[in-house]
Amino acid sequence: MMELKEFTEQEVEKIRSNEEQMDREGAIPDELLAIIYDKQLFKLFVPERFGGRRTSLPESVRIFEEASSINGSFGWLVTIGSGGGFFSGNMKKEVLDDVFLPRNAVIAGSGAPTGTAVKCEGGYRVTGQWKYCSGAEFATTFTANAMIEDGAGEEPAMRSFAFTEKQVEILRDWNAFGLKATGSHSIKVENVFVPEERTFSIFESNGVVDDPVFSYPFMPFAQASFTGVLLGLGLRVMEEAEHYLDMLAEESAKKPVLRKVLDEQGDRLEALRSTFYNTIDGNWSLHLEGESGHEQYDEVSEVCAGTAQGVREIVFALYPYLGMYASDRGTPFNRVFRDLLTASQHALIAPY
């Protein structure tokens, strides 16, 4: 297991003791949410005035990796939940206290523009349905994109909307074979009124929150975050493969073969991690100095895609050597295998 920095050994034990239940019931227990709230992990990017930690991108990505190396669903929820804090730099100042100040404040939502909005007095009437809203079961605010219909025949413009809990219907349709406890359900709204102050654009600063993370482009920000998750899951894959190796009899002919494969893939994973973090750290330094342009941000995106693909290849290189143990849905290896494959399907780190 990787060196712990954010979590204690006792917290790791508590999280992992709930893994089977989480995989079976498809929900994160309250005692694990309490760990997240206590550590303000949903507020990594939120300014201190709202109870946030105001963490840099490189530090946050390392937290995502560590959390995901403990448990996939836990790490994914920390990553997605904290990512909503990015919007504290976009939302209008009138709603910042309401959305971000509560201790349990967390945003769930979707970036897909699968809703429509019609302008009305004081705001918009919004109708739509959005898939894969991780953390929907405990979210305090929901954000989603919709296309504005003005009836003038012009090209519709996209805008983001912040719904309250009461405005949203959770469809509870998350049925993936991995990340089962993330509650990544669809949400639906039907002709709900959203006041102007609860609308925003992720491409526009609110001028209220001044922090380097909010001027960092959203796309490489999100790609780096998800890549951190995959690296954490890759570390857990290696950990569980090592456990399987330890279970083999000393005289097993399979043992030296698996040892060789583990060493090769472990070296490959560390090389991927080194390249990834060197790129993220270097780009962040350039960003702070105001010297990072499109070319440098594009490099981050390329490294994220390459790292994600490399982690996929590592897990598939290991899988054949673990026999039926790897196929047993009740084993920790199978669980992290399913989590990794599910996480790697996210469009922002897809190999195309």
General description of the model:
InterPro entries: Acyl-CoA_DH_C, Acyl-CoA_Oxase/DH_mid-dom_sf, AcylCoA_DH/ox_N, AcylCoA_DH/ox_N_sf, AcylCoA_DH/oxidase_NM_dom_sf. One of its GO terms (molecular function) is 3-methylbutanoyl-CoA dehydrogenase activity. The chain is of the alpha+beta class. Helix content is 46%, strand content 15%. Strands 1, 2, 3, 4, 5, 6, 7 and 8 form an eight-stranded mixed sheet that branches. Strand 4 and strand 5 (157-164) form a beta hairpin. Helix 4 runs antiparallel to helix 5 and helix 4 packs parallel to helix 7 (218-247). The longest helix has 35 residues, at 254-288. The two termini are 31 Å apart. The model has no long low-confidence stretch (mean pLDDT 96).
Q: Per CATH, which architecture of the largest domain?
A: Up-down Bundle
At the fold tier of CATH, the topology name of the largest domain is: Butyryl-CoA Dehydrogenase, subunit A, domain 3
User: How many independent structural domains?
Assistant: 3
CATH superfamily heading of the largest domain:
Butyryl-CoA Dehydrogenase, subunit A, domain 3
Radius of gyration: 21 Å
| Number of contiguous helices | 10
C-alpha end-to-end distance: 31 Å
The tally of strands reads 8
Coarse shape: globular
- Kindly state the percentage of residues in helix: 40-55%
Main beta-sheet annotation:
8 strands, mixed
Q: Based on helices, strands and strand pairing, what is the structural class?
A: alpha+beta
Mean pLDDT: 96
Q: Give unreliable regions as ranges.
A: none
